């Protein structure tokens, strides 16, 4: 994730982040590990949105909000009760979705990253 990817920008130019998601359609659950560095302000929320790269879209899964994290931090958790069809669509078309992290100084989003399938090692 980076500030340069944020739409509509600008995001936080010197901030970066990483999001790892585990999708479980049968249990209607998305578990995540998020980490971020150098975000200005207090980190207050993170979401999965639906939109391709270069566009912005609606929140489809709130990962956390409201929150109060430092500009360099990490957080992991699971979100339950997610629609099975949504999880299936994220799995099939990850590039149609992105994760972003919001702060008090970047309320529209400090960093963003499009989802992609993890390649097996």
General description of the model:
- The structure is a single chain.
- This protein is mostly beta strands and 121 residues long.
- It has one helix and seven strands, in the order βββββαββ.
- It has one helix at residues 84-92; strands spanning 16-24, 29-37, 43-50, 59-64, 73-80, 97-103, 111-114.
- Strand 3 (43-50) and strand 4 (59-64) form a beta hairpin.
- It is globular.
- The chain starts with 15 loop residues before the first strand and ends in a 7-residue tail after the last strand.
- The model has no long low-confidence stretch (mean pLDDT 96).
Provide the succession of SSEs. Answer: EEEEEHEE
Query: What is the terminal separation in angstroms?
Result: 21 Å
Strand content: 35-45%
Q: How many beta-strand runs?
A: 7
Low-confidence stretches: none
Question: What's a quick, concise take on this entry?
Answer:
By secondary structure, the chain is mostly beta strands.
Tell me the layout of helices and strands:
Blueprint: E1 16-24, E2 29-37, E3 43-50, E4 59-64, E5 73-80, H1 84-92, E6 97-103, E7 111-114
Antiparallel strand pairs: 1-2, 2-5, 3-4, 3-6, 6-7
Question: Key features?
Answer:
mainly beta; 4-stranded antiparallel beta sheet; 3-stranded antiparallel beta sheet; 1 helix; 7 strands; globular
